């Protein structure tokens, strides 16, 4: 009897609440046993809409643009080399200094999915109801063309001007420069801070000096003991160095000069580290000096570099720097030691001075290029 009542109740409530089957036991069930909890509504999953991304052809370009006037409309016939491509149309009213996109344009513009001959119409009256009283330049191009041109200009700028953080080679002389990031360090018991700069990877060579100045004053070139283009130039006074940089700056897009004493020592110490010699504590590994030079200079870059990738900042030839030895005198500073120096002279902290007109077979230079 109980079972039949349950089935009837189930039929009456069908479609409103789903009831579970009643128990067939003859015992009276409690109210909590007869009443079943409602099920939670099932959440409906939303369908994911996947947006199709059109990958435009990287080599697309516009060629053979032929404009003509058809009534009040400029019609431009052009050829699209590759597709799909994003095509843009722009006009200039100031000779090409600035460009804008007109509004009254129709035809093969925007996303174009087939290559070949195309037509683009500019209804001039929509942008200029009273007409145009100035010369108008027009251009049609693809976004891929613009991106390629932007990348080309960036590469050219980097080739000429360099990128902070990366090496740079002067296109005229072939001089290689290493980026020295700015920082602070202890110099003579005082904190010194320098901005980032490019410093010559090597001392200025005889070949580089000859390209700029048209001569080679080096003693070791004349006696043949170190006469290759990669040998460091020597017999250079501080005044000679200033003339070298004046000529170098006249023929280059950049600013070249001697390093200051603080910049030189910061670079010698691999970025202000506590290094005895430029590159470590072993003078024989990093420097040509009195015990291993054979009484002559050597081609640059044969010893171990320091932590920045700079060579021969200890030994080979002394290097002039920009500073005076003290504020009241005229003597200029040179640093780094030479082929005939003691190990003590090759230390990063060591400094000497001489008059700006003095030249010697132990004196050379290194170039710095600012940002």
Structural account:
- The chain is of the alpha+beta class and 371 residues long.
- It folds into 3 domains: 2-29, no CATH class; 62-148, Immunoglobulin-like (Sandwich); 169-369, paralog of FGE (formylglycine-generating enzyme) (Alpha-Beta Complex).
- The chain is 20% helix and 23% strand.
- It has helices spanning 2-12, 31-34, 124-127, 143-161, 206-213, 219-222, 238-250, 261-268, 283-286; strands at 62-70, 73-80, 85-92, 105-107, 110-112, 116-123, 137-142, 168-169, 176-180, 183-187, 190-194, 197-200, 256-257, 318-324, 332-335, 351-354, 363-364, 368-369.
- A hairpin with a 6-residue loop joins strand 8 and strand 9 (176-180).
- The longest helix has 19 residues, at 143-161.
Q: Helicity, in percent?
A: 10-25%
Strand content: 15-25%
Strand line-up of the largest beta sheet:
8-9-12-18-13
- Total domain modules: 3
* CATH C-level name of the largest domain: Alpha Beta
Task: Determine Rg (CA atoms, Å).
Answer: 39 Å
Query: Please, what is the oligomeric state?
Result: single chain
Class per helix and strand makeup: alpha+beta
* CATH architecture classification of the largest domain: Alpha-Beta Complex
The run of helices and strands is HHEEEEEEHEHEEEEEHHHEHHEEEEE
What's the short version?
The chain has 371 residues and is an alpha+beta fold. Helix content is 20%, strand content 23%. The protein has helices at residues 2-12, 31-34, 124-127, 143-161, 206-213, 219-222, 238-250, 261-268, 283-286; strands spanning 62-70, 73-80, 85-92, 105-107, 110-112, 116-123, 137-142, 168-169, 176-180, 183-187, 190-194, 197-200, 256-257, 318-324, 332-335, 351-354, 363-364, 368-369.
């Amino acid at each position: 009897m109980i079972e039949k009542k349950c089935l009837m109740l189930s039929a009456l409530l069908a479609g409103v609440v789903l009831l579970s089957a009643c128990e067939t036991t003859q015992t009276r069930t409690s109210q909590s046993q007869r009443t079943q909890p409602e099920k939670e509504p099932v959440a409906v999953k939303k369908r994911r809409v996947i947006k199709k991304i059109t990958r435009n052809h990287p080599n697309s370009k516009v060629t053979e643009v032929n404009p003509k006037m058809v009534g009040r409309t400029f019609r431009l016939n052009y050829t699209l080399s590759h597709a799909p491509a994003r095509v843009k149309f722009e006009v200039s009213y100031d000779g090409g200094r600035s460009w804008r996109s007109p509004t009254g344009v129709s035809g093969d513009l925007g996303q174009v999915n087939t290559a070949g001959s195309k037509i683009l119409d500019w209804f001039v009256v929509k942008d200029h109801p009273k007409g145009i009283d100035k010369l108008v330049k027009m251009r049609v191009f693809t976004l891929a063309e613009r991106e390629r041109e932007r990348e080309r200009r960036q590469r050219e700028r980097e080739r000429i001007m360099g990128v902070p953080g990366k090496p740079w080679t002067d296109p005229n002389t072939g001089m290689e420069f290493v980026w020295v990031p700015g920082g602070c360090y202890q110099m003579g018991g005082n904190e010194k801070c320098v901005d980032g700069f490019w410093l010559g990877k090597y001392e200025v060579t005889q070949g580089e000096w000859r390209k700029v100045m048209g001569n080679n004053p080096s003693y070791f070139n004349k006696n043949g003991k170190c006469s290759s283009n990669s040998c460091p130039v020597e017999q250079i006074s501080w005044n000679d160095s200033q003339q070298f940089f004046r000529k170098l700056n006249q023929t280059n897009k950049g600013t070249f000069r001697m390093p200051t004493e603080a910049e030189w020592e910061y670079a010698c110490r691999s970025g202000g580290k506590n290094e005895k010699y430029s590159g470590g504590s072993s003078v024989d590994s990093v420097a040509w000096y009195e015990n291993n030079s054979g009484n002559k200079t050597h081609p640059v870059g044969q010893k171990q570099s320091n932590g920045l990738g700079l060579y021969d900042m200890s030994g080979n030839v002394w290097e002039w720097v920009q500073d005076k030895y003290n504020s009241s005198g005229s003597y200029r500073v040179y640093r780094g030691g030479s082929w005939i120096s003691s190990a003590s002279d090759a230390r990063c902290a060591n400094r000497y001075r001489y008059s700006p007109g003095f030249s010697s077979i132990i004196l050379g230079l290194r170039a710095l290029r600012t940002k």
